[in-house]
Amino acid sequence: MAIVRGVVALCVFGVLGLATPLAQAGRPDDDTPAAKDAKTERTTQHTLTIGGRTIAYTATAGYMTLPTYDGKPRAEMFYIAYTLDGVTDPATRPLTFSFNGGPGSSSVWLHLGALGPRRVDMGPEGLDQRPPFALVDNESTWLEFTDLVFIDPVSTGYSRPVEDVRASEFHGYQQDISSVGDFIRLWTTREARWASPKFLCGESYGTTRAAGLSGYLQDTHGMYLSGITLISPILNFQTARFEVGNDEPYRLFLPTYTATAFFHGRLDAALSRDLRATLAEVRAWASTDYLVALAKGDALTGDERARIATTLARYTGLSQAYVEQSDLRIGIFQFTKELLRDQSRTVGRLDSRFKGIDRLDIGSGPEFDPSMSAIKGTYTAAMNDYVRRELGFEDDRVYEILTGRVNPWSYDQFENRYVNVAETLRSAMSQNPSLHVFVASGYYDFATPFFAAESTFDKMQLDESLRGNYRFSYYEAGHMMYIRRADLAQLRADVEKFYRDALEHGTRMPEVPAAAPPGQ
Questions:
Q1: Would you state the pLDDT for residue 515?
Q2: What is the mean pLDDT of the chain?
């Protein structure tokens, strides 16, 4: 990345991953978007040691003014970018734009959880909830093989519309796609990175955004992507909407119910030996006998219903009576409340390894999601400290980690049908056969279950010649599988291989330059 106008980077003073913040820049003479960016950006220099090898990188935190087509300011979008130092030709260096979902989420989770050079440490299994929380160097950062740009959509993080522009103009599927896509085009243009191989990485609703962007960037800006990483994806909302008349979620969530019961010791001995073997068995049953039973509904005979109830109880760890009383249809919140009810505990939605404590043991759903409670305070404290103290960016506005201010969120173009962006992704991959997709799913994720993602891709109607362009990988944690150290390292290894494979017939990934020795 070119050095930002009006900003001089300072050197590191002996602490890896920690830089002295820049002094406040002077006010520019004009009020153009470019000048606004100059006064609201901070650039710092850092080093990071990975496996005994030290690399140097530049961090830039600040705003980019998003203009209309006619050049009028629409919003100030906050971002944090990391570029590796010592790269002789940035055109050979992959570039990744990353964001989370919500809608209403900042990019903090992927930024400080998995991809960035610094990360939140929640212990080996990611279950440590004791404040204060440590921010440590991330030896699994993706910065070794790609430059990174973390984007906060409008109304999240520090991003806001400009004066006299309504925030609601950005709060919707298409509005969000266009604003984030226009930011990507503008950043790429200003930093002269059009020749770089370009990737997207989204998590949760961020995968919905990424699929939408695959079409928008291609069709609107002529920007063709090399790859997309979908972490805990949801592309077809029918797979996750428990509504009368929609039986899909009941069978697609079942393998996650089984994995959760496995983790908490609620399965019989035969199902408790090998998680993957058990899940393969449950997937097969959910795609055959259970699928047919749900389709038959009240036409099931008494014997058929009893047989399905027995198997469903065995695979969920719930009692057969409870399964029968639920008409063979277990909703997510019923399950998270019921599984450990006899222990006066609930299980998490984002990560069902977590346990929660409700005021009462009665009721059909939990009071809160213990896995969300575990991460929200952790990442909020880490981000507010990091952006000001280590990156030197000062802003007294609230950094919106996860906000409801984006509601109502518009899905106008999907009126009277479920949101489904898998078709957008299929079309983009068909028009750009070099576009590759990596799907990362956690076994203990109830927000975006892995079997639902598999089903979405199975039904995408992608041409047979392109089906090798996507791959799945699975992890023994939840929605944010990277909070578990082993999965963090595995995710990084899996994604690096994905990048290399995606670029095999294109630009070769260069070797990572080491930082200069002290004094040079």
A1: 58
A2: 90
Backbone angles phi, psi at 501, to 5 degrees: -65, -40
How far is it, in rounded angstroms, from Cα 268 to Cα 507?
51
- Indicate the domain borders of the chain: 84-238+377-502, 243-368
Q: What is the average pLDDT across 241-257?
A: 97
Residue 61 CA to residue 44 CA, distance in Å, equals 9
Using alpha carbons, list the distances in angstroms from residue 438 to 116, 490, 498, 520: 19, 14, 7, 40
Percent of the chain with pLDDT over 70: 89
* Helices 275-286, 254-263: inter-axial angle, 10-degree rounding: 150
Reference 111, options 386, 327, 512, 359; nearest CA is: 386
- Whole-angstrom Cα distance, residue 155 to residue 54? 37
Strands 160-161 and 73-84: antiparallel
CATH 2.40.50.140 for domain 84-238+377-502: no
pLDDT value at position 128? 83
What are the helix (H) ranges across 32-190? 33-39, 108-110, 173-190
pLDDT of residue 512: 53
Cβ within 8 Å of residue 76, ≥6 positions away: 36, 40, 63, 64, 65, 66, 158, 159, 160, 161, 162
Are 515 and 55 in contact, with CB atoms under 8 Å apart?
Answer: yes
